[in-house]
Each structure stands twice: as C-alpha cells, then as structure tokens.
Amino acid sequence: MKQFRVIKAEIRKLTTTRMPLAFLVVLAVVGAATAVAVAFGTDMDGSQGFISTAADQQSLMAFASNALVIAGLFGAIAVAREYGHGTVILTFLTTPARSRAVAAQLGAAFLAGCVLGFVGAGISAAAVALGLVATDFGFMVTTSGLIQVLAASTFAGGVGAVLGSGIGALVRNTGGAVTGAIVLLFILPPLAVQMVNETARWIPNTLTNVLSGVGSTVGVGPAFVALSLWALVPAAAGLVAVSRRDVV
Amino acid sequence: MAQQPDVRLPLTFERLTKSYGNARVVDRLSFRVEPGRVTGFLGPNGAGKSTSMKILLGLAAATEGAAMIGDLHYRELDDPTGTVGSSVESDAFHPGRSGRNHLRIVADATGTSTERVDEVLELVDLADSADRHAGAYSLGMKQRLGLATALLRDPPVLVLDEPGNGLDPQGVRFLRNLLRERAACGNTVFVSSHLLGEVEHLADDVVVVNRGRLVTQGSLSELRQTASVVRAAAARDLSPVLEAAGASVEEGEKGALVVRGLPLAEIGDRAFDAGIALHELSRHRDSLEDKFFAWTNDTDGRAQGFAEETS
Q: Which residue from A16, A86, A91 is facing B89, i.e. has the nearest CB?
C-alpha cells in the first residue's frame, strides 16, 4: 500500500510539468512524417512497393524502436532533473529507504514509457492508415498484427523509460544522462556488432523488430527477456549508486 | 490534522563526524536538541550545519557517530514525514511545477488529504499563488513553500535550514511566531541560521559550530552573559574591591569597568562601603553578534566572511 502511494507520487511528478506534452508533440511530429512518407514516398523505381503488402505496412507501423529511444530520453531527463532541481530530496525524505524510492521512480517511469510507446504506436498506425488513403493501396495489416505492433511498442516504451531512468539515477545530470542514453542505444550496439557479429541478434533494434512481428532473428520469448535486460542492467546500476551516495 | 503534543522527541548528535576525502566537514559533533524549545544552529558558511542536518535526515551518511531522532535514525522512523518536518534546500522545487502540485506530491506519497494541502497553503499565505509555477516564486515564497512542506503532516519535530532567508519582515514575524508556538506545544524546533538578529529573537537555546566542531551550546540567555558597566572616579581602587567579592572585572572603553558575576545592587553597595563615588552603574548585555565573533574568531577570515553576510 505504502509503495503504491509512492508510485502515485512519482506519477504525479511526471505529469505535473510540461515534459510529457513535449514528448507527445514529438510523437505527433513523427506520426505526421510517417503519414507524409506513406502518402507521397516512393521506392527508387518510382513505385510504392514499400507499402504494397501487409508485412510492409506492419513494418512501417512498428514503432517499438522509436518508442525505446523516445521513452529512454524521457526517463533519463525525468530522473536526472530530479537531482538537478533537488526534488529528489523530497523523495528521500518521504521514502528514506532508497531502494523503495528508486523502485517507485522506475515503476512510474515504466508506466509513463508504456503510455508513450502505446500512444506513439497508435499515432504511427493511424498515420499509416491516413497516408494509405492517398495511395492505391488499402490497409492490409491484420488485427493481430496491429495488436502486436501496439503491444511491442508499449513494452519497448516501458523498457526504454526504465533504461533512461537508470542512467539518470547513475549520472544525475540531465545532459550527461541524455548522452548516456544515446550512447547506450545508438553507439554501443553497432560497436558491439562490429566487434562480435553474433551480437547483432541481441541489440535493441533487432529485439524490438522481433517483438513487433517484423523480424524473426530470435524467438519472441528470448527477445522479451533480452530487451528487459537492456533496461534492468542500468536500472540496477542506478539503484546501487543511489543507495550508496549522499544527497548533496 | 491534530497536533501531537504528547510526542516529545529530542535530537541527539553523538560524536557525529563526516569526511569527504581528507576534508573533515563535521568533526565529532555532540549535542542535544530538547523538545519544547527552539534551538538555533549557528555557524559561518561551511561550518557543517547543513551537512549535520542532512545526516540527521538520512540524506547523507555519517563517517562516524550518529544523529538520532529520539532513539532512532531517520530511516528507522515508522512515519518519517509525520515525525520530522524539514526544509533543507530553499529552492528544491521543479520550476515548471506549481506550488500546489509540489505539495500534492508529498501528500500522495504520505497519504495526506488534499484538504490538508489547501490548509497549509493558507497557513503560509501562499493560497493565492499556489497554482503558479514555483520557478516564478520569489525566494521568500519558496521559503514559505518549503515551510508548508515541512508542516504538511503536522510533525512534532521541525528541522529547518536557514528558513528566514529571503522572508520579508511580515514573513520573519510569522515564522518566529509559528516556531515559538510549535515549541510551546512541546515540539522540537531545530533551526539553522546565519541571521544572528533573527536567532536572537527566536531561539531559546543555541548550538554554535565552526569548522565542523562544536564551539558552544546552551540557553541563549545564559550564553549572553549579562555584565555591568561601572564608571568611578577611582576605578583602579574599585577593581580589587569587586574582585574580592567574587566578580570578574575587565577594563572597558574610556576607563569604564566591565563587571561580571555581581548583581548591580551589590556593586553599588561595595563601592559605597569602600567610599568610592560612582559616576555610572548600568547593565550591559553582549549582543549575540559580539558573542558569535568571540566564539568563532578565526584568523583566516572565515568569521569575517560571516560578518560581511550579516551586515
């Protein structure tokens, strides 16, 4: 019960500034760009082959990779600015057990990330459907395909937010946390693939594609676990760091 | 929310030590803050006041020793914010969040009603500005919001770091009255400040620290020892007479004697008995500022820095 109260407080923290609105604007812009691309984009040969099959359309809708990155930045900023503004003091005064306080932060971030991922995928699906109106192709994605895209993006959003929050708690500086999230999501995976080719199956982009039903490099179960680990490792590091450090 | 006059919790600092690397910012600090009294925590900047308070509130870990609320560390309290109300940073607010939402976050985390949020906003005179972003608040308004946060659960212990900074005269008076009322109800009130004038009007007891170490502590009235100023035609003859009666005598300005340890009337009687005519016999009370500089007199200018701030 106590923990639910703390999570409620953390959710209020996330929803009482303009930051969520700014991220929704980003989602809307991405959606608009998708709609324009579907409506007016062409392949090299001038055709619209890239939207001609259900698999193509589902691939265009798959928002999970974007959700992971966008929610990752959201989580990183949300937690790091707590340290920047000193509001984390209030968190630790109301919940002196640091592990409980951080768990609540991560829980709230996960929920917020899920919402961002779901809304992002919804906008993306709507954008594809809207863009298709201006083409010769109809909306071909099945209901189950649509549900998978939405579910994958929702989950990836939650995972991204936890990943970002962990980095935010570790770094405690907004600029540093954003940089850390970008390094972890954009720079580290291709570097790892360059060094060990086998890792390509386990990088976030591949895993989100599997979950969205537009890739099959690994099974859905292993992809689910592996993507979770991408978030749990920085979250655990953040938790340990916060438990040991003074608030100065 | 009902007051808790039956809960009387002293604060105990026991050989509290905090080091950052080789720098020891709090050095074997031991003292006790009694319930039912307002205790001022004084010291120049960097004396270790805020660090000591943060250790008390579980925000920083002690290198050695302990700071306890009653018999417990802050983190061991069943209901931390219901036991200790605190304000340790004057601007620990998200600038884009309203004052009301700031308090609602604490209310959510502690299961406090929104009616109580409205009550404390009224109490600190922030109700009209409660829906404005905290970033647009003046320093005084931020202090009021911090105070509202501390009072939200109506706790029996208040720990406030520099709560008077930025308050206008009405705000200072409000704060003074509020803290005195809380102490009168048996609450423990521990307030750090570098505004000596404010402490002089507020505190029953003071704890003075410098360079992380305890310099002095006690009731303010005892520490501000009262002296008598005596002017006499034969001041040199009077000194040994008064010293023989148990007084301590120092030379003051312009030939006056500053006498401690003898009541005013007895000084007059002793001078009369010795046949020495007095030209002046008056009370002299050291100001807290005078005492403070005597307590924290440094050769490296740290006390001087304090003087510049208070002037």
A: A86
